[in-house]
Queue: 2 jobs
Job 1
Amino acid sequence: MNRIRATIIFFIIVAIGSSGIFFSSCKKKSMDGIIIFTRTTGKAENVNYITGTLWRYIPQAQIVELDPLKPGASVKILTSDFYSARSPQISYDGENMLFCAQQKQTDPWQIWEMDLKNLKSRQVIKAKENCTDPAYLPLGRLVFSKSSVDDKLKGGHSLYTCNMNGSELQRITFSPHTYFASNVLSDGRILTIDRQVYPNYGNPMYIILRPDGTKTELFYKDPEGNILSGQGLETANGRIVFIESDNDKSATGNIISISYNRPLHSKVSLTSETKGDFHSVFPQHSGKLLVSYRKSESDRYGLYEFDPETKALGKALYNNNDFDVLEAVEADKHERPKKLPSEVHMDIKTGLIVCQDINLSDPQLSGKFSVLPKIFNVEIMGVDSSLGVFQAKTDGSFYLRISADTPFQIRSLDKNGHVINTCDWIWLRPNERRGCVGCHEDPELVPENRRPLAVKKSPISVPVHIKKIKEKMIDTE
Amino acid sequence: MKRPQKLLRLFGIIFALSLLVYFPGRKMAREHVNSKTATTDHPLLCTSCHLYTQKTGIISKLINADYLSPFNLTVSADGKRLYVVAQEGKALLVVDNETQKVVNKISIGNQPHSVVLSKDGTMAYVSNQWSDNVSVIDLINSKVIDTLKTGNGPAGLSLSADGRSLYVVNSYSSDISVIDLSTGAEIKRLPAGNNPTGIKLSPDGKVLYVTSRRSNIVPYGEPVISELTIINDSTKRVSEYKNMESAYMMENVAFTPKGDLGFVTLIRPKNLIPSIQVEQGWMMTHGFGIIDRKNNGRVIQLLLDEPNAYYSDPYDIVISPDGKKAFESSSGVNCISVIDIDSVRALISKASPEMLKTYSDNLGISSHYIIKRIHTGANPKGLALSPDGKKLYVAETLEDKIAVINTETLETVSSLDLGGPGRITVARQGRRLFNNAGHTFQNQYCCYTCHPDMHEDGLVYNMSGKDMGRNVTNTMSLRDIGDTPPYKWSGTNLTVYKQDGMRFSTYLTRTETFSYNDLDALVAYIITGIHNPPNLMYNPNGELTEAQLRGKAIFERSVDNFGKVIPENNRCITCHPGTYYTDKKLAYVSTLSKTDDSILFDTPHLDNIYASPPYLHDGRAATLEEIWTKYGKEDKHGLVGDMSKNQLNDLVEYLKSLKAPEYDIKDSKKHRAKNKSNQD
């Protein structure tokens, strides 16, 4: 009898527990199919691509959600507690959203995370400077752009990473460039818009780097110098899509698709035949794109589907005469990028760089000289001064140990000391070991299987002592 | 005492005892697992090291399975039959192409490699790489009717133009047997490049091209050079050795139907460059070589790779009958690349030698001629085209299947199941991981790339653990290493688990580390699934030659030629004792160079040591002799200073005879049986 009673009690407990679980899961808000986007009242004109004003920092913007399966339903504002909010980024499990926001008009922009189940937000970054464009990294960290206090940057932004609670903040870019609109590709690297701001302004390009700031390399730049105006996002079929503009004041343009496998030589404009402007693009699981599109300058940007195969604009998902719709994302789970290991050791204060042959240079350079001069010396330039000159080895190689997290440029000099070529600003992270095939060489070139003479000896430590520089120059002459 | 109370007390005692055992036990287990895995969060699973790595016994049989592993294949002249070499199945599988069923499984030798059909299609010849012979199979009766003796490690096969001779590429002895098929006797032995494998007769029937996998042995710093051996079919002599500079692992070869171009698969390694990054093709690139026969036989190399995507471990190449397309399998990325040959012709016809040199290191150039990448099952190896060229058959080695690809639509149209075990065991998963580049940044290489056949690639790398240019290391064989810890030349890794763990991803694969499940699988495979081949070249039956016996005495001696006692730590046998010829300890042998950190060296095992040149930690000794004649003059690596040249030769002969213990057991059984029969 007791056994029967115990059995009944057991089953009752199990039934109550199960129904509790069942009902609580029913109560959980499902975000599947929901689209989240930024909407603004102002016009996306007169943007500043250096400081981010009206481009990454848009007043009175709101992040809203839309259920596209409920036609005619109004959107729900998710950031009503903020003066302005934008740049929604969905976590890999689809349960949280990173965004940047100003609580009050006078506050700096900061990074926040919202729990999409209960719509509660918490501040991730509390900084004095403006922070924008957050993106999830796979190791429980995030990357974002932060306005720099460095005078040389003149309002430029550097990239930082930190844990999801804001701890272990690390700066990962160190050159006098500004970085915006980062995204993390499935290979685990960060794709970001990079633009030189010192000593003069350069054209924007996508660079790619590991989350620890190592192995930075050029990913894509438009040969015409067109402006990159938003994140480069990966599609399921190995393409990267983004917006490219020929107008330095407007964040609108065409949707460009490039191949991840060969980004520098695979550009396709998906919308060159489509009348109107595109502001942002997001690849959906279905293979179609979510786009912000307006037919003419007098119209507002609406949310549309776009088929990249047929290059056809689909139905409008949302339009509102009072708002521009920007930066749409799907609030779904998505694949986590690879977790890349890090070689950075903060207790080591230098990095190493080897160049296999400085005489291998930009193919366009040969157009400037009838015979490309042989490089004899190499000069390392700091932001304010020369860090030293030394001889390249006879095979064109050199090998340096240089202070970590410090920007420098490499100049190649002919035997008369004339500058032949200057590379872009680079930096090495602590303990980073990095290799270059040449100097501004074709980025698709791999190193020849040849042992660089320079690595037969210890690296040259930079800065090189001035007396030594003179001696070496005299030796060369 | 009432029964419930008794039970309650008993339960209480058991519970208390469990707690007493659980907490210290768990702590001990944690410490044990941490020490073996060099991590702090590996799950406390005994199965990782104590179940999956079982090599023998019932448990091993239960958790493992017998796979077929289709490796190479060919199609009958009428296209109705497919003949598939099942490497692990030790069989030739006959497949009916209409029903897509295996209709016959003919048992052959050990580690079969390639198959070729007689001109009339009634006979098949299959090379047995670990048996040193070729099985002759009567296809009408599906029976092995003869076994032809070959050189060591027979691999690629080709008939002569008249069909009367069989060329057998001996991959281990680096030569080619020419066998008269009317008598079955070897009539010639031709020297080939290092570790030759693939062979193909040109369409005009005049020459045969033989690929080689390993580079010629050169001092570290010198360029890698592999040789393509060219044989004149009418004279049956080598007419030329063509150098493939900066390339190795030429597995197979194909000709265009006109015969003007020969194509070989190849890898362009970057072993001379400090291994400091993977980006920008800094470790390995993969492609094909072209021999432009009408253009003074100039050699051109082009890549399959792209700037952010690599197609590792190319294995086979075939060309469509119309000469328009070449198909190359990349076994490390489960992919067939389709090459447009007209585009290749256009590209190379206009290019100067300087431009061609640049092309060979350019990742973007492949966009000129690659028209499709076709995904396949795990580890695509051998390829065969149907006689009409409309179908491409792909041996998916670690899938136990054959993929069938329509060569016009370039789509996979069917998958032919050869009937292997349906399940994937832990060790099999490990073998898939070993052979797949998906765990390396941008798929640039896999374990197999530097350890082909799970052995070593004969190259010395600058792994740059600290500074660049320092500590160059000779790649070590992975065969039978499970019982010979520690690992690495420095012996810093006490387990395979640690060797392939986190540091492996930080400094070698440079992408996400293996999950613990994957690491379990990889370790299980390395420990249980990688074996030495029998040492048929120097010790075929366990009986040592006179010279080897003299060498054995020197190896085991304790007194020098002058009657002086050799210090114990300077005798060969002290550091190289027992089953694997290693004491598994670290030693100083005076071979550190100025560019080495000051370390002691892990004593390597010596099984099949003849097959692992170059020698010493940095590969400076091209031969076993050089270990002492050039680099052992201080007598710290064993006492040799008193020895005559003949004695050193004897010692080397003995070292070459060393083989894996599993073959000793068989041999000793065989010998016992032989002795018994002699006594009877």
Job 2
Amino acid sequence: MAKKEYAFYPGCSSQLRGSASNYLTSVNSMCRTLDVKLTEIPDWNCCGASIGYAESGELPRHVMNARNFALAEKHLPGRDVVATCAACWLGAKETKEKLAANKTLKGDANECLKEAGLEYQGKTEVRHMVEVLIEDLGYEELGKHVVKPLEDIKFAGYVGCQTNRPFGINGESFENPVYLDKLVETAGGEAVTDYDQKVTCCGGALAFSEPEKSQRQIKDIVESAYDHGAEMIVTPCPLCQANVEIYQGEINKKYGTKFAMPVLYYSQLMTVAYGGSAKQAGLDGQVIRAKKLEEIAVKVVPVKK
Amino acid sequence: MSEALNEQALARYRNDFLKEVEERVEEGEWVKMCMQCGVCAGSCPFGPHWQHSPQKIFMMIRAGKREEVLTSDSMWMCTSCYNCVVRCPRQLPITQIIHGLATYAHRLGLAPRDQPTRHFSRLFWKNCTRAGRVNELKLTLGLYFKDGLVSGIKKAWALRNIGLGMLLAKRLNPFELIRGHECSDKAGIQKMLKKAHELENRRRGFQE
């Protein structure tokens, strides 16, 4: 039996051919090493994200999230729901909080769910994968599996917004969360602990609708990483990853910069540190290749003393 | 329909815009609690782009500036970063109120017509609720081609390197156009959402 078992909510961007498909690849590899079993919630749906608000209103948005909880409660009772995407986690967590605080809203949500033959009980917790790592397993356990420390690589831990606010990770500050730095150090890398743009917004969904304004934000995020001597950025959020990575070329064209900063997920770092291949770490999914990490990934695992 | 909804609201609330917001906007009951400190305005990543900061919007609501608030471009500048929420000394759910106001302005047909985030927000919800999951390729193309074929091709061409990069990284696939990811209980989701819109309309006092 696996050490830990969860009801898994991968989210839309992590699906095959999705913009964060390499996130899922690396999470699966990381969890194999850690003996964490993720069972996908059958027929899970989109959380509605933050950007769907204009058309969704309040109840329809909560109902979308409540459906996932209801499915988890029905098919995988007793297991916490785990999300890897910041927006999925936030959306689900907000719904759980709102339905717990408001009986009318909960009643309404259940009236809607009845149409799909489901019921929301509110028994299930939703956690972010980062919480599973640092709360359920702990840094010490995470460190035990490191066979290839990511030596000589300096990472800027870009936490971003939605894994940090409004809920955040327990015990961390909103203005200067340090868990990502600790994860980097656990994987044997060097963390830029004074990275001042670590919680700056990348523009989120407005990177699509307001590209100029968002790219100014992204420029600050990447520039500060360079200024602090970082070679790579690491993040827990799929939209942060995509925005900060893929617009660097556009920013170079507009501002005359020469950005080529790889942007990775914490799970890719862990996978490589755990001895996984570049493919298992989803490094083939980088638009800006993380060459130094690829070099470590092809090295033969040293025999344990 | 949105015009009728607006007239109904005007008749019902007359000059009491604060009451209208409290009853009809998500988290609107918190607006009166704003103490006008301005921390939200200074904390917003898109702050300089707001014609009226959240602090000003809240005061304008209390001052009954209905038309100015609901037709404003400002609420559509919210990136959902929640910085204002965690810094507000009174812990007001500012992000949610701003979203709520934008939603209400959109429903009444008063929001700026060509507001790009308004457009994207609609597109996103339509996209993710059609089959229960987001189709990223259709979402992106929908955004590029919103002003017609020629402008869409120009936009797609201007950003071709991004698309190509994603394609090579296997994070975008033309196959999604033909057969994207879907929930199997699409019908159930549609019925559930239809009910949710009905109930919400009833609770908020909107005409059907």
